[in-house]
Amino acid sequence: DAKTTQPNSMESNEEEPVHLPCNHSTISGTDYIHWYRQLPSQGPEYVIHGLTSNVNNRMASLAIAEDRKSSTLILHRATLRDAAVYYCILGRRGGSQGNLIFGKGTKLSVKP
Amino acid sequence: DVKVTQSSRYLVKRTGEKVFLECVQDMDHENMFWYRQDPGLGLRLIYFSYDVKMKEKGDIPEGYSVSREKKERFSLILESASTNQTSMYLCASSSPTGTTNEKLFFGSGTQLSVL
After folding, report:
1. Residues B24, B75: contact at Cβ < 8 Å?
2. Dihedral-angle region of residue B9 (phi above 0 means left; psi in -120 to 50 means alpha; beta otherwise)
3. Whole-angstrom distance, CA of residue A74 vs CA of residue A51
């Protein structure tokens, strides 16, 4: 299975943008890029996913490199509530969502 | 909003006991999953199910079994609990693959301690 590489931790200031990087150099043509986050004492929650084009939703934006070997999750204005572990995951459409391999993720701290 | 409910937030059991972890989802999802989460190891898939009475092994099925008698309910069973099964257990569900709305929805987790 293709793997992803993320920094262990990042810090941000409240109300500033946050760019969370993810490398996935062995991504295949059918792999979607998914992002989930896990707030303290909760189960993970879906953030966003994409294949080739950049994607936006109410929570975040996903910027995908042209060669798809890396992507960046963008939180436009970090709030204290965004402090969480962020997981970048590759998954195949048409396969089970259970094939999403959750790594260790990036722990984001947000300072007031 | 989709709701995935796990029956217990905290559970303490003794070694050798049979343990049932229950999970219910209210969005008519076909797919349901059980993960365990341990510090430094991330989430690992134990079992999943595509439909009623169907089950598939995940990455770490040893020591566990599952039951899916109804679409909305997926149970994880520890036949004889051991201390190395002390962990956070997370249940999830998702809509059928191939739809445009493929997302995993997780419950809040059950922290199981086996003494």
Report:
1. no
2. alpha
3. 16
Residue of B nearest to A105 (CA): B42
Residue pLDDT tens, chain B, 115 long = 669 999 899 999 999 999 999 999 998 988 899 999 998 888 888 999 988 999 999 889 999 999 999 999 999 999 999 999 999 999 999 876 555 447 889 999 999 999 9
Does A97 sit within 8 Å of B102, measured CB to CB? yes
Phi (first) and psi of residue A19, to 5 degrees: -115, 110
Question: The tokens of B28 are what?
Answer: 């008519």
Cβ of B106 and A96 within 8 Å? no
Question: From the CA of A23, how many Å to the nearest CA of chain B?
Answer: 18
Is residue B2 less than 8 Å (CB to CB) from chain A? no
Chain B partners within 8 Å of A100 (Cβ): 104
Report residue B44 as tokens: 């690992």
Cβ-in-10-Å burial (0-12, 13-18, 19+) of A58 comes to: exposed
